[in-house]
Amino acid sequence: MPPGFWGQVGSLLAADLRREWRGRAVVGLMVSFVCVTGLILNFTFNLALESRVATAVGAFWTALLFATILGLGRVFVLDGENGVWEGLTLILLDPGGLFLAKLGSNLLFLTVLDSVAVPVFAALYNLPLLHGAVLLPIALGTLALGAAGTLFVPLAGASTAREILLPVVLLPLLVPVLIGAVQATVAALTPATAGQPPWTGLLAACAALFLGSGYLLYGYLLDD
Amino acid sequence: MILLEAAPPPVRTPPNGRTDRTARLQRALGGATAITMLIAVGMSFLYAPPDLVQGQAQRIFYFHVPLAWVAYLAFFVVLVGSVGYLWRKQDGWDRLAAASAEIGLVLTSLVLISGSLWGKTIWGTWWSWDPRLTATLVLWFIYLGYAMLRALTTAPERAKRLAAVLGIVGFIDVPIVHQSVVWWRSLHPAPVVLNAAGPQLPGSMLATLLVGLLAYTLLYGFLLVWRVRIAGAEARVIDRQRQTALGEE
Amino acid sequence: MPPTAPGVAIAAHNLGKSYGVGWALRGVSLSVAAGAGLAVFGGNGAGKTTLLRLLATLSAPSLGTLHLLGHDALRDPRRVRPALGVVGAQSYLYADLTVAENLWLYARLYRVPEAGGRVAAALAAVRLDGVAARRVRACSRGMQQRLALARATLHRPAVLLLDEPDSGLDADGQDCLARLIAAGRAAGQAVVLATHDQELGVALCGHALILDAGRPIYSAPALAHTPAEWRARCVLAQSRSRVA
After folding, report:
1. Which of B154, B157, B187 faces A159 most closely, judged by CB atoms?
2. What angle do CA B67, B70, B73 make, to 5 degrees?
3. Which of A189, B143, B192, C46 could make an S-S bridge to C211, C-beta 3.0–4.6 Å?
4. Looking only at Cα atoms, what is the longest distance across chain A?
5. Beta-carbon pairs below 8 A across chains B and C
């Protein structure tokens, strides 16, 4: 019984996960980076201030952002091996489906990253990151970062100057995601604040933008 | 079963009418820009009264605000060109987007510089993380990324397509960036450099501002038409070189 | 726009590809019927790979038209791609998946009916059934090339485009290649085969075309000349362009 659209997306997703399971190149890179960065940021930021929570949350999202960019960049390099990326343009699946498959595997890798980063930062900086209200901004922020990365890493990766181009192209677009993620996380951790701007709504809007444009525009990244 | 004739390739030149029309448009825009710019600058320095609080320094406002407006307009045109290119696949749309992005980047730089000068004069600091200036700074970076993407992607067809994708997503991101920065700044209120752009402008100031808006919009239009024509001429030269290479042998 | 005659799988007219100012390929027109085979000969840099990439819609031509299976391949390449089988310079194989897993994945992506049977048959056809559980990364170049062949023919494409498929293949592998092409043509596949091996080209294809410096130099039915004569013509064309 030949698979339908979701069957194909599922097959691609399963293949990506299987490859990662065997090589563990991407998740290993991201997890080790985030842990080391968590350590380093402790020395570069003075955490004895009253705004300790805000600074620690800022450090958390900084580490997560750079780990994401590194990891998704590695995914792209691995997909370039043997021209697999080009081979996918020949198959019977519309580009939106390819985007969803890639997004799915990237998000799974990022979830693994989060599940290490959250406890590590919670422990190192004494942040109660593991209770309910905080997980929503973390999830939304990860979703937005993942969607933006899935779309823009191949976009920047098409040129030979990938390492220079990716941060310059991607990071300015992510400014609202970072603002929203940090503020929403802080707001969830310090419930006393009232009259806050809708940070979670901002994150949701960013996620929607990157998901929508990724799904609709991915095809233009694939051709020639 | 296998044919081997190589048909002579057609040489592509635009119909002469079109070249003349755009040249006339460019000259008309140039003339209009020169006149209105002269009036606008004159009004900024001579007609508009000095601000009660900021004194003569406030006159930067008449350059800074129209520049900002036109910078955003330029990026809207980048969006239009990007969508047009992806939809129609005609190079003309891509040239429009590229030209507008180039001009927009320059104009945004001027917005940042003038805003910084204003801040230095009024508050003594070169940069104050004022929300609108900050959002403009992020915008500048987005379009720097656009320019770098175009410059660093070697395959020309792919560069156009990828730039179009970035042009679309970048522009939609702009209002989100703006709002997020405004909200972020609202947490830590700081001197706002640009509050002179409020609704209670006396008539003479408002008139000066509007003339300035017109003048800078015409300037943008003039530069845009000029730049697009140059890009079109470049494309025709490359085309002709290619046809020559093809015709040899 | 000349309508494609029925039974013509590939109809290309005045194809040209330019990167910058120079032309990698120009003035190539060809027509390949269903079940027919076209061998493309030429030295390195002659434009064989460019031509095959254009036919595979992996690259858009700067000039010319291309119709595949009756459809305008330039206006809507995605529509015709699933009917193409491509073996190119890159293998399109996932290095960290096994031989069988690669074929299974592509069977699903191409929506191949009775995937189980087809995958087994494809493995048998390229004689890789013994190493079905080996990761591609651990396979030799020749084995990867065979797997690429299996992958390209798995979905029984109507058009098979092969760019030097014999490179890296031992005698056994070349035998598999020959059988695959012959069986495909018998079933109505149109085959375009770019190769340096004139014997292979003449044996498997009905027509042959020589490219040099991106231009079509000579074309004739394959059996009009012996392989040695074809080789001589290729060498002559190359030396002529070097002198020019």
Report:
1. B154
2. 155
3. C46
4. 63
5. 50
Listed in sequence order, the residues at least 6 apart from B105 whose beta carbon sits closer than 8 Å to its beta carbon are B140, B143, B144, B147
Question: Across the interface, do B166 and A169 touch by the CB < 8 Å criterion?
Answer: yes
Mean per-residue pLDDT, B172-187: 88
Q: Residue range C171-179: average pLDDT? A: 92
Q: Which residues of B touch C215 (CB under 8 A)?
A: 6, 249
Minimum distance, in Å, between the CA of residue C155 and any CA atom of chain B: 27
Cβ pair C82:A91 closer than 8 A: yes
Inter-chain residue contact B246 with C22, CB threshold 8 Å: no
Residues in chain B closer than 8 A to C13 (CB atoms): 3
Any C CB within 8 A of B46 CB:
no
Distance CA C99, CA C96 (A): 9
C91 contacts A82? CB cut-off 8 A: yes
Q: Contacts of residue A93 in chain C, CB cutoff 8 Å?
A: 109
Q: What are phi and psi of C93, to 5 degrees?
A: -110, 140
Contacts 24+ apart (CB under 8 A), B183-188: B183/A179, B183/A183, B183/A197, B183/A199, B183/A202, B184/A179, B184/A183, B184/B131, B185/B129, B185/B130, B185/B131, B185/B134, B186/A197, B186/B131, B187/A183
CB contact under 8 A, B2 and C23: no
Q: What is the pLDDT of residues C97-144, one digit of tens each?
A: 999 999 999 999 999 998 899 999 999 999 998 999 999 999 999 999
Question: Side chain identity at A183, as an amino acid letter?
Answer: Q
Instruction: Say yes or no: C131 contacts chain B, CB-CB below 8 A.
Output: no
Mean of pLDDT values over C167-186: 92
Size of interface A-B (CB pairs under 8 A): 100
Asked if C112 contacts A2 with a C-beta cutoff of 8 angstroms, the reply is: yes
User: Model's pTM, two decimal places?
Assistant: 0.89
Phi-psi region of C27 (alpha: psi -120 to 50; beta: other; left: phi over 0): left
Report yes or no for ipTM above 0.95: no
For residue C54, pLDDT beyond 70: yes
Q: Which residues of C73-91 are buried (b: 16+ CB within 10 A; e: fewer)?
A: beeebbebbbbbbbbbebb
> What residues form DSSP beta bridges with B55?
B51
Q: Measured between beta carbons, which residues in chain B are less than 8 angstroms from residue A210? A: 169
